[in-house]
Specification:
Rossmann fold; D-amino Acid Aminotransferase, Chain A, domain 1; Dna Ligase, domain 1; six-stranded antiparallel sheet; 19 strands; globular
Length: 406
């Protein structure tokens, strides 16, 4: 049985070492034989090196355990690995799998997977290796379930050309020079600075021009887990802070949304959308996220269901129905247009907001949602369903592939 105690050390055995492949020829023959004689497709899950270390110590995260639990009935040959356990030259992977027979996590050498599901980030030093790995997977005709990261600027830049989505976008530009920054600030008074890529509220700063013309920054400090506020009188000091914060990396400037608030806490929404086995798009759940007081982001926050949000807004049933239909149409459009540009996705997290007039405003797309808000708002069953949906969609692709081969 799968141990559901997140921090429990299963069996007390020594942590698994993740060794380098020494006898390459033997490993290649073994992997090729596995691939040829397999009765089930291989489903590879890319996770962080930190997650791999935890698995080697029999300490899986609860989301990992949920995925493994859902796979038991679906039946993929599932294994987890990190970018540094891939042998690019020989196209082999040292991974860890869950042995349902004795409830242990075990290491093995695997061929490249038939289905690739990215759940962990890739450090900058491994970007080239990751691109090569993706190229090799495509050449092998593996299915990439979340094929591309969805950078903030790349998505916004594309959506600006989609007429039906223009009305949902905030004014956004790339930072070029100090004039672009201060012109936007003078026009809007409140602006966001965002890294071109980033998750969990990283690289996001709210910049305000105060009534006394001072410049105030607010951002979430992930290492200290608290909101930081910094104020400057001079433009020169403001620019020095920005340069230090972004370390020379490109960032975008965006008009701030006049978000709904509850007790001075900003509210935005996270929708989890997924492909069904029939290829249609389904909404697994829409969660309303409440940021901490004065926080510029709602990540690392509380979450409520959409019904709870509607009750707070005191909307009539008719108003709720109309607003939900608008949300549904918007989310489907975002999903399809993102796929038109970046490829087909098994799932997608979409962040959006309602302004004071209940207009829908787009924030960003996420290709590898951690589903934190879904779990907080709707509980374990919703998380299980979302994990199962990905597996069932992959299974439907597997059946189509098998049909084509006949």
């Amino acid at each position: 049985m799968l141990d559901v105690d997140e921090n429990k050390h299963s069996g007390g055995e020594e942590p698994l070492a993740i060794p380098k492949i020494t006898n390459v020829e033997y490993a290649k023959k073994l992997a090729m034989n596995k691939d040829k004689t397999k009765k089930k497709d291989y489903f590879g899950v890319l996770v962080s090196p930190k997650t791999m270390r935890a698995l080697s110590e029999q300490r899986p995260h609860f989301r990992t355990k949920t995925l493994i639990k859902m796979n038991k009935d679906v039946g993929f040959n599932m294994f987890l690995f990190s970018i540094n356990t891939i042998d690019i030259q020989n196209q082999l992977i040292t991974g860890i799998y869950y042995d349902y027979s004795d409830g242990k996590w075990k290491k093995d050498i695997f061929p490249y997977p038939d289905f690739f599901y990215r759940r962990g980030g890739v450090a900058k030093k491994y970007k080239k290796r990751y691109k090569t790995f993706q190229y090799q997977l495509k050449k092998k005709k593996s299915s990439l379930l979340n094929p591309s990261p969805l950078g903030n600027w790349d998505v916004y830049n594309y959506f600006n050309k989609v007429i039906s989505l223009e009305k949902h976008l905030q004014k956004s530009i790339l930072y070029k020079d100090p004039d672009t920054l201060f012109d936007m600030l003078e026009k809007h008074r409140h602006i966001y600075l965002k890294g071109l890529i980033g998750r969990k509220g990283k690289n996001v700063v709210l910049l305000e021009q105060l009534p006394d013309n001072r410049y105030q920054f607010r951002y979430y400090n992930a290492s200290q887990k608290k909101i930081q506020t910094v104020t400057f009188k001079k433009k020169e000091d403001t620019l020095k802070f920005i340069n230090k914060f972004y370390k020379g990396k490109k960032f975008m400037i965006q008009e701030a949304i006049d978000l709904l608030k509850l007790n001075k806490r900003r509210i935005d929404l996270r929708a989890e959308l997924q492909r069904t086995p029939y290829g249609t798009i389904s909404i697994c759940g829409i969660s309303a996220r409440l940021g901490k007081e004065k926080s510029p982001v709602t990540t690392h926050s509380d979450a409520m269901t959409l019904d709870e949000l509607f009750k707070f807004l005191k909307l009539s049933e008719t108003e709720q129905s109309k607003l939900y239909i608008k949300m549904e149409n918007f989310l489907n459009k975002v999903y399809r247009e993102t796929e038109n540009k970046f490829g087909k996705f098994a799932e997608m997290g979409i962040d959006f907001a309602l302004d004071q007039d209940y207009n829908i405003r787009f924030i960003e797309c996420n290709s590898q949602s951690a589903k934190v808000s879904l779990h907080k708002a709707y509980g374990s069953k919703a998380l299980e369903k979302s994990m199962l949906n990905v597996l069932l969609y992959a299974k439907s692709l597997s059946k189509r592939k098998a049909t084509k081969k006949k």
